Every structure is written in structure tokens, then in C-alpha cells.
């Protein structure tokens, strides 16, 4: 989508009308603090040089250092990175963790790179941005198609440049080098806690709930496994190659083994193949988009049959779809709350790195639950006070009020 950032910022304008925040104060939040674009030459395995473009957008650091993932995907562009950085600023404020927002990316299809090319590209990115990141400046983390190994290379390269071991420059690292227990499953577990609590509020019994999960990467897959283990019925999953549907429920462990063997979920023996588009329109209670932006838009919103949408991806519901869904009574649990578990445990990882003192998994998960439940309660109360079913609007009110308060206290 060409004007993703403009559409995202629109949400701010709605909040300003509701909360009488001055034009000037909001003007600060309408644009990123800093946009950096760096050229990244990499020697490929065939000896040829290929020049990639690396982006980092530092949105706002009023409440703490910039924080946000690093995305490697062919669709990455500056408008998208700006949008994702803005959402991180809102997310950190909703979660009430002491960070501003940031995001980085490279337009690349990682499936076309060898492991050593991927390492050289990551190290080139780190060198390109070494002066702009740091434990008290800006802390990257995994996002779409980046993983703990990539974070390890980033941490290693940065530590070499600075001449000191600096694990707190990045989160989502492998546990062997300062990663936090529970970080890999944190986004999924946080989303699960939120969903369970929302169902309890709506008095919907767990055994009546069927779920369809779009996206079988780290977040979608772990969410499906956690939800199934807790007694929910997962009837559909998909990855970029297509999806599977069995109205009686899927055996996820077997689907996972099948994906490991064939590299996609489709053509699994005891389920029907369906397209990603059809998955979004299935008759389920809860739809969980866990892949990319704008999969639910004005065209397909009227065909969505789910009663609840749990946004584990960033921005899966396009602006125009939201009104249609809300008129149909669909409750959208917005990304800035639903997937905040990842950055919450990133915060715990950073704290552990700075303290050189590590927590066990039970402590991480217990603190995650407390932090995300507090965020949910605050958003829910705000939504009730607004008298509607628009959780995104409530989340933005909570975030903008916190950001503006911090701005006023610090001064400009
Ligand atoms: N990429 C994740 C997100 O969009 C995590 C960011 C982080 O941990 O800093 O929330």
C-alpha cells in the first residue's frame, strides 16, 4: 500500500478530536524523529557485489530509547518502516514500558540468500547503523524473516565495533549469549493471555471457540500450539504457500512435521487445502492474522465471519475495513495490544542484560502476564468509557495520553 503511513497517522487525528490535545503536541507525534537510509554493499557467494538498502526509522524517544524490530522482506520500503516505527511507539506506550518506537528493514528475499550471505548482510547493516543504535539509543529485535541468529550477528558486530561486549544493543538473542528465556514465544503467549481474558470478559466458554490462524511463522505457529494445548480448537492454519482447513480441528504437531518435510503446510493428508484469502472468511469464532499488513481490507471485511480478530501481525486490518467490522459487531483486538508480548519480553531481556542477572522462564512469563493484563485492563476501561466496541481507538487514547504527558513534563 502506497500511503500506509498517512493512513496510520489518521488514527492520531481521531484521538486528538476525542481528547483535546493541541495541534502542536500532536504534530510532534505525526512525524518520526529521524529517518536513516544506508547503502549496504555485500559480496555475494559468486564474488559479485550486490548493494542493498537498509532503513531505520526512529519514531519518538520521549518515554525511553527507540525500540523495534528489524524486518527482512522483499516488500520493505521507507513508507512501511515509518508506519511500523509509529506503531512501535504506540505499542510501547500501551504496554507501558520505557521505550519509544523504532523499526528497521532491508528489502530482500532471505530465501534467495545463503547463510553466509545473510550473515554478511546483517553485519553490513550493523556497521551502517552502528552510530545510531545502542543500549540507550535504539535497540533492534527480530521481526518478519529475522531470528535469534541474526540478532546474534548484530550483537557480535556491534560489540567488535565498540570494543566491548554489548548484549543490550539488541533483543531476541539466543539464550546462550544473553537472550531471555521465553522471548521466542512471548508474542504468541502475550496474545494468548489477552485472548483468554477478553473471552472471559465476554463470557465465552473456551470449548466453544474455534480459531483460524493466518501465518505459520514463529508467532502464528507458537500461538496455535499454545492455544491448542490450552483446549482451543485450531481449524485452519496457513503460510505463504497456502492454507489448511479441517472443521473438526487440526493435529498441529503432525502439520508441523509435514511442514518441516515439505517446507509448506498445504497438501496435509487430513485437511482440505484452502487459500490464504478463504482462510480469512471461515466461519470461526476467532480469526488470528499473524503474517503481514492489510490482509483484511474494505473488499473482504464484509465476508469475515469471525466474532473476534486477534491481530498478532502488525497492521493486518486496513483502516477502511475497521468501520465495516465494527458495524457488524466484530471485536478487533488491535496489534498494539495483542502482539505487545514480544516487546514486553524484549524489555525484560534488556533489563537482564543491563543487570547481568538472568531470570527463569516462570518469572519471565509471570511478569509478561502482569504487564499485558494491566495494558488490557486500561484499554478495556477506556473503551467502556467511550461507549463503543473500538479497542484500537481506546488503545490509541491510552498511548497518546501517556506520550503527551511525557512530552509536557520533559518540555520541548
Ligand atoms: N518486531 C516485534 C514487534 O513488532 C518486536 C519488537 C521488539 O521486541 O523490539 O513488536
TrEMBL record:
GO terms for molecular function: glutamate dehydrogenase (NAD+) activity; nucleotide binding. One of its GO terms (biological process) is L-glutamate catabolic process. Residues 180-411 form the Glutamate/phenylalanine/leucine/valine/L-tryptophan dehydrogenase C-terminal domain. The active site is at 103 (proton donor). Substrate binds at residues 67, 91, 346. The record marks 143 as: Important for catalysis. SUPFAM superfamilies: Aminoacid dehydrogenase-like, N-terminal domain, NAD(P)-binding Rossmann-fold domains. It comes from the Bacteria. NAD(+) binds at residues 187, 218. Keywords: NAD, Nucleotide-binding, Oxidoreductase. Signal peptide: none annotated. Gene3D superfamilies: Leucine Dehydrogenase, chain A, domain 1 (3.40.50.10860), NAD(P)-binding Rossmann-like Domain (3.40.50.720). Belongs to the Glu/Leu/Phe/Val dehydrogenases family. This is Glutamate dehydrogenase. It comes from Candidatus Falkowbacteria bacterium RIFCSPLOWO2_02_FULL_45_21.
Amino acid at each position: 500500500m502506497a500511503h500506509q503511513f498517512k493512513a496510520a497517522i489518521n488514527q492520531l487525528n481521531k484521538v486528538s478530536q476525542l481528547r483535546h490535545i493541541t495541534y502542536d503536541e500532536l504534530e510532534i507525534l505525526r512525524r518520526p524523529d529521524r529517518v536513516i537510509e544506508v547503502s549496504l554493499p555485500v559480496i555475494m557467494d559468486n564474488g559479485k557485489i550486490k548493494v542493498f538498502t537498509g532503513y531505520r526509522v526512529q519514531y519518538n524517544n520521549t518515554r525511553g530509547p527507540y525500540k523495534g524490530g528489524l524486518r527482512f522482506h522483499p516488500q520493505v520500503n521507507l513508507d512501511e518502516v515509518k508506519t511500523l516505527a509509529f506503531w512501535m511507539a504506540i505499542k510501547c506506550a500501551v504496554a507501558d514500558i520505557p521505550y519509544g518506537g523504532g523499526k528497521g528493514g532491508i528489502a530482500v528475499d532471505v530465501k534467495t540468500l545463503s547463510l553466509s550471505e545473510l550473515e554478511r548482510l546483517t553485519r553490513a547493516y550493523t556497521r551502517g547503523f552502528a552510530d545510531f543504535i545502542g543500549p540507550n539509543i535504539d535497540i533492534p529485535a527480530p521481526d518478519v524473516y529475522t531470528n535469534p541468529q541474526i540478532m546474534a550477528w548484530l550483537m557480535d558486530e556491534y560489540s567488535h565495533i565498540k570494543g566491548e561486549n554489548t548484549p543490550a544493543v539488541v533483543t531476541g538473542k539466543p539464550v546462550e549469549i544473553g537472550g531471555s528465556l521465553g522471548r521466542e514465544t512471548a508474542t504468541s503467549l502475550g496474545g494468548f493471555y489477552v485472548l483468554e481474558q477478553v473471552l472471559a470478559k465476554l463470557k465465552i466458554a473456551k470449548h466453544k471457540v474455534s480459531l483460524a490462524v493466518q501465518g505459520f511463522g514463529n508467532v502464528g505457529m507458537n500461538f496455535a500450539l499454545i492455544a491448542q494445548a490450552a483446549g482451543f480448537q485450531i481449524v485452519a492454519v496457513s503460510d505463504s504457500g497456502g492454507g489448511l482447513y479441517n472443521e473438526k480441528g487440526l493435529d498441529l504437531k503432525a502439520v508441523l512435521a509435514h511442514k518441516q518435510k515439505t517446507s509448506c503446510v498445504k497438501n496435509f493428508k487430513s485437511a482440505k487445502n484452502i487459500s490464504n484469502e478463504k482462510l480469512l472468511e471461515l466461519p470461526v469464532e476467532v480469526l488470528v492474522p499473524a503474517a503481514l499488513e492489510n490482509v483484511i481490507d474494505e473488499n473482504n471485511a464484509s465476508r469475515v465471519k469471525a466474532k473476534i480478530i486477534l491481530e498478532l501481525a502488525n497492521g493486518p486490518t486496513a483502516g477502511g475495513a475497521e468501520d465495516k467490522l465494527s458495524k457488524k459487531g466484530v471485536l478487533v483486538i488491535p496489534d498494539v495490544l495483542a502482539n505487545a508480548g514480544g516487546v514486553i519480553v524484549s524489555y525484560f531481556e534488556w533489563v537482564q542484560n543491563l543487570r547481568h542477572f538472568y531470570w527463569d522462564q516462570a518469572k519471565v512469563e509471570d511478569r509478561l502476564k502482569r504487564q499485558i493484563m494491566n495494558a488490557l485492563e486500561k484499554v478495556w476501561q477506556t473503551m467502556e468509557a467511550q461507549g463503543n466496541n473500538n479497542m484500537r481507538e481506546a488503545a490509541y487514547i491510552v498511548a497518546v495520553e501517556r506520550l503527551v504527558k511525557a512530552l509536557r513534563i520533559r518540555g520541548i
